[in-house]
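Many introductory courses stop at the sequence. We go one step further.
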Amino acid sequence: MSDNTPLSDLRKSYEQGTLDEHQTASEPLVQFQGWLAEALRRGIDEPNAMTLATVGENGRPSSRPVLIKDCDERGIVWYSNYASRKGRELASTPYAALQFHWVALERVVRIEGRVEKVSEAESDAYFASRPLNHRIGAWASPQSEVIAGRGSIVARAAEYGLKFGLHPPRPPHWGGYRLQPDYWEFWQGRASRLHDRIAYRLQADGRWLRQRLAP
């Protein structure tokens, strides 16, 4: 492919795998954990990276990459600055969508649901496990705010490094979020754009309805 190839001419045939609804797990979490384990086993670059989409008070969506840090029956967990744009949007509209895209496996996982903060004990425990420079960075960065330049962040990092030394506490504006899924979708690329899409919708009785979607 040359540098001047038109974007409209870019094509790829997806032929690595299949996804049959009768062979998927009855619980979407189990299906997800299996796919994530395979991405880890195959050495996929940053398999823990996911896109987080939120909605502002003006109704406009925004998205950004974050990293999954935990996953169990309670939901999907990541950590961030509560005062950031995504934090403010989640405070006003506590619903979000997540997407994992494992390009090398030709797979996508989409997840939707309500978001809540994790407990302070969970946030404290994870914060304490982070490298020191990451903990200092959580204090130094007024995330999403306009700054004069990179030098201001470097200076703030040095300031907080001197202030807290080797034991910075968790900032009150920093902690975890947990998305509680009510919708999952698993996408496996297929030839001729006839992709496999299996959706799980949470029903009122707590069971998951599994359905195939048109590609």
